[in-house]
Design brief:
The protein is an alpha/beta fold and about 425 residues long. It contains twelve helices and 21 strands. Strand 8 and strand 9 form a beta hairpin. It binds 5'-O-[hydroxy(phenylacetyl)phosphoryl]adenosine.
């Protein structure tokens, strides 16, 4: 609905936004100093007090927070309000060790919902739409975040959660879902099922809001084509609230950051030095308004670039590029840096679906990179000679993209396990 497109914030002149950010930062640093002993100690160790912070130009004086800090502070060490003011927790999707738990006041949730509402409106939705949310609900932020945003917009919200593809399709058809919210890998799976069951003419989808995992431009075009929709990227992380930290607009060239709430920096992950606009590095966020879990200079480990180039949608909010990977998902294979997203780009460019798995193992002290990729049903019916020709072609393309020889194995359609949430693309047996 109109009022969740907020031009006063989303299209503010740079000086006005900067003024607001400066005021909000000064206030939130004082809040953290007064209420979060864990971070106050870090500030004291760095020899900095709230009096040293007059605005975002002073941000570099503040110490970073890392995931390890949050694990150390688990569960209540970063809580910034008395327990009776906290109304919700959510938690990261990590599978090993202690999870990070993030706290929210009602105001924090209202801010988060409004950020998701901005994303939903930017994807073209109004209160006439039917918003089909099949991100997971529960501790994961995907379901609750988009659900809250959809309510604010006034769309009819279907809180489907993930899984049970039959039911997803039935509701999609019967209730006339128009906006699909899920991970891109689940969207690809649903698209496959829609076409197989001949439902393409029976669905009314017009847009998708897909995030929570890396996906390539090629995968976007593929999903768009298969479902006849526009597919928009959405980014966020539990520690900083959840989905809606940034979102794509009609231009589809990166995600506008809700920088009235979350101040971004890009740093060199090795040295911690702040990098100029346009350079690739690790994304760092400072929460300007959140009170229950007010993280300062949180290192996300996500790699991207920031841009203030004029956007055709009229928003002036800074844009982050599609994620180029994470500092911790980069594989080093025989000394060569490999991002799974590079492999995905090659596979989709060669006309394969985004159903693949990468396995790295070590044999006789030598790394071995295996890429298994599903064939389309048409390729599967080709002669065996054709199949090995496809394999050879991918080996060559990977070699020119990565400078590395990989083993490529084409497998039958539907043999790689489908994901309903975040896809598991990489198995690194060297770490097991
Ligand atoms: O994945 C929040 C979310 C839910 C975002 C639904 C978008 C949609 P976490 O489980 O805490 O939270 O995982 C956060 O997921 O640091 C990124 O590495 C990755 N990620 C999130 N969005 C994107 C995206 C949610 N659009 C981590 N593209 C982040 C690539 C993404 N990676």
């Amino acid at each position: 609905m109109e009022n969740y497109y907020d031009p006063a914030m989303e299209c503010a002149p740079r000086e006005e936004m900067l003024k607001l950010q400066n005021e909000r930062l000064v206030e939130n640093v004082q809040h953290v100093w007064d209420n979060v002993p864990f971070y106050r100690r870090k500030m004291e160790e760095a020899g900095v007090t709230p009096e040293d912070i007059h605005g975002v130009d002073d941000l570099h004086k503040l110490p970073f927070l890392t995931k390890d800090d949050l694990k150390e502070a688990y569960p209540f060490g970063m809580l910034g309000v008395p327990m009776e003011e906290a109304v919700r927790i959510q938690s990261t999707s990590g599978t090993t060790g202690k999870r990070v738990v993030a706290f929210y006041t009602q105001d924090d949730i209202d801010i988060w919902d409004s950020c998701c509402a901005r994303a939903i409106v930017a994807a073209g939705a109004t209160n006439d739409d039917v918003c089909h949310v099949c991100y997971g609900y529960g501790l994961f932020t995907g379901g609750p975040g988009l659900n809250g945003g959809s309510h604010l917009v006034g769309s009819l919200t279907l809180p489907m959660s993930s899984g049970n593809t039959e039911r997803q399709l039935q509701f999609m058809v019967d209730l006339g879902s128009t906006i699909l919210c899920c991970t891109p890998s689940y969207a690809a799976y649903l698209a496959e099922a829609v076409n197989e069951k001949g439902l393409r003419d029976k669905i009314k989808l017009k847009a998708g809001i897909f995030g929570a995992e890396t996906w390539s431009e090629e995968m976007r075009r593929d999903i768009e084509k298969q479902l006849g929709i526009r597919a928009y990227d959405i980014y966020g992380l539990t520690e900083v609230s959840g989905p809606g930290v940034s979102f794509e607009c009609s231009e589809q060239t990166g995600m506008h950051i809700n920088e009235d709430h979350f101040f971004p920096e890009i740093i060199d992950p090795e040295t911690g030095e702040v990098l100029p606009e346009g350079e690739t590095g690790e994304l760092v966020f400072t929460c300007l308004t959140k009170k229950a879990f007010p993280l300062m200079r949180y290192r996300t480990r996500d790699l991207c670039t920031l841009s203030r180039d004029k956007c055709s949608c009229g928003r002036t909010l800074v844009k982050m590029s599609r994620l180029q990977g994470r500092t911790d998902d980069m594989l080093i294979v025989r000394g060569v840096n490999v991002f799974p997203s590079q492999i995905e780009t090659v596979l989709l460019n060669e006309g394969f679906p985004a159903n693949y798995q990468i396995t790295v193992s070590r044999e006789n002290h030598k790394d071995h990179l295996l890429v298994e990729v599903e064939m389309t049903p048409e390729m599967f019916s080709d002669r065996p000679g054709e199949i090995s020709r496809y394999e050879h072609k991918i080996v060559e393309s990977l070699k020119s993209m990565l400078g590395l020889k990989a083993e490529v194995r084409l497998v039958a359609p539907k043999t790689i396990t489908r994901s309903e949430g975040k896809a598991v693309r990489v198995i690194d047996k060297r770490k097991i």
